[in-house]
What we know:
Blueprint: E1 5-8, H1 14-26, E2 37-42, E3 48-55, E4 58-64, H2 73-87, E5 94-97, H3 102-107, E6 111-116, E7 120-124, H4 129-136, E8 147-152, H5 159-171, E9 174-179, H6 189-199, E10 206-210, H7 229-251, E11 255-259, H8 265-280, E12 284-288, E13 292-293, E14 296-297, H9 300-308, H10 312-318, H11 321-326, H12 330-341
Parallel strand pairs: 4-5, 8-9, 9-10, 11-12
Antiparallel strand pairs: 1-2, 2-3, 3-4, 5-7, 6-7, 13-14
Helix pairs in contact: 7-8, 9-10, 9-12
Amino acid sequence: MNDYNISEIYPTEKERNQLVDALLQTEGINRDKNLDYTCGVFDTNDELVGTGSCFGNTLRCLAIRDDHQGEGLMNTLVSHLISVQFQRGNTHLFVYTKVKSAPFFKDLGFTAIAQVADKLVFLENEAAGFSNYLDQLEKPQQTAGKITSIVVNANPFSLGHQYLIEKASAENDLVHLFIVSEDASLIPFAVRKQLVEQGTAHLDNIVYHTTGPYIISNSTFPSYFLKDDDTVIRTQAALDIELFIKIAQRLDLTSRYVGEEPYSQVTRIYNEIMVEKLAQVGITCHVIPRRQVADEVISASKIRLALKEDNLATVKRMVPQSTYDFFQTVAGKAIIAKIKQSTQIVHY
């Protein structure tokens, strides 16, 4: 590395960022929209010969110029990004990479958690990370009977979520309820968890879980080396379900409940793949029609839009009293203010 140096590239550095984009494109990579750190590897002539980025606790958009490959620069680049992550307090790291690149990361101490055909490998730098997550999942002594599961983001918790959970609760002996714990939503995880628990407190056969980093949200799934939107959706679904199957087998799940999706193309395709993949391992996926109020399907996107527009009458129709009451508090009003400033309200 005596002939090279690594330095951060800031969003305001237009020319350097154009060089990063050009280098990534030569490697068949589009710059990920979710990045919070980017660096470049520069030679003695200050030419960009490599780049890499981070987002949260993931490494992303890694590339070395073709004529400099084989010089050990990728190893140095990844080591630099790991050092940056450690300085930020992120020690449990993840990387998504092409299948052909997976052996390189394994040599650096990463362990594969799941793979989607020939498209993608998901790895972490803690050898026992996922197995430790499985071990800490609460599993009641009673394992006989019908055991189901639901995964909710609850951004925010609505009467639709409540209806789905109540139906699963009534039709099964036990419900494992997973709350997406990644803080990438307009409503923070701690609030979403609180509202889910308050809105389901009347049910006595619910076991609550957090997803940790192992159930992936749309906002953090990497799409930078997948060729088109349809491939991105299908690959994310396949990876997510691959991980969920391992969770399901640990908890002896017999089914999973999901809401029907009349609006979001992403969720609709996801549900179709889920039904197919879970059936292959003997798990039934129940796709339940969405609850309606006043002939209108309830959706979290509609609730966020109503909050943005100060349409509290619509919010009140679509959420449990506990959720509505929260938005009357100081903390709730602060979140409404944040929603009003956002341009990303409705998910497609």
